[in-house]
Amino acid sequence: MKNQIIALLPLLFLTTFTSCTSFLTPAILGNNMSYLPKAMVADSVKTLTNASASFAASVSPSAGTGFELGMANISQSHTFKKANISYGIFGYAGKASGGNKDNSEENLKNYLPSFKKSISGVGLRFSAGLHRSSANRNTDFRYINLENALAFEGGAYTKFRQEVYNSRIPDYVAVSNRRVLWTTGLSTEIIWRVRDNPDFRHAFRFFIGGTPNFANSFRSGIKTNDFISGKNSMGWVFNYFLYIKRFSLSLEMADNVNYAQKISVGYSFQ
Question: Can you tell which superkingdom this protein's organism belongs to (predicted)?
Fold first, then answer.
């Protein structure tokens, strides 16, 4: 599993596996702030509904837990002269794997045994922002947006995290018991359409934010206390979005507790 994720995320994970501490974090972190497509100011139709499917992979900090997720997303956006709002829902399912294959009694005092567990969850997305359009109306500058995601995570992996949290924590393990996750922050975005083909568009978005009080949801072994002391959930997400007629492609990478990448394909209804 770890090899698969490293192959998918070569740039992000070059420095990930630098210690032997194992973090059990919620699986969706890093992949919960998905791009929400919006109509441009110059479009005649100001309301856009988008459905998409995603494949996401991520890893928790340090020697971490690896995640593979399939996601389904649907959202609707409304574009006004100087403002926009978007909202949507998403669902996800997949697997988490990690731990140490050495199950000797001495080793289990320090590390988790090897595991592979199922993941499932649902979530809500909301975004509201301000923008302005260029003089030729080919470019929109969505200069500030308030972004929020609320996720509810379940499955065997979540149950496993609860069991580890409520037991003796191995020395090199840190575990969060959080099941409900609220992530919030600000983003900025630029989107433009090709002058000779307005159905062909590019967009770049950058988000920065975090999950309030997330650090307080951890219990840790004695060897990890100093490692997580003072840590917080602040992180970033970067998107590239391509729109061709009604079809879209979104590429995303994030360092938002978990290190993550996601690819999404979608279709927009007007």
Answer: Bacteria
CA angle 106–111–112, rounded 5-degree value: 115
In sequence order, which ranges of the chain are alpha helices (DSSP H)? 2-8, 105-110, 156-165, 225-228
Q: What is the pLDDT of residues 110-134, one digit of tens each?
A: 888 889 999 999 999 999 999 999 9
Return the amino acid letter for 144: I
3-state secondary structure of 64: coil
Q: How would you list the strands of the sheet with 22-24, edge to edge?
A: 22-24, 173-176, 218-220
SS3 134: coil
Q: How many CB atoms lie within 10 A of CB 51?
A: 13
Both tokens of 91, joined, read 């669902």
CB 9: neighbour CB atoms within 10 A?
18
Helix, strand, coil % in the chain, rounded to nearest 5 = 10, 55, 30
Q: Per-residue pLDDT tens for 30-57?
A: 999 999 999 999 999 999 999 999 999 9
Determine how many CB atoms are found less than 10 A away from the CB of residue 35.
Answer: 29
Show the tokens assigned to 198: 């307005």
Q: Could you count the other beta carbons within 10 Å of the beta carbon of residue 261?
A: 21
Residue 234 carries which side chain, given as an amino acid letter? M
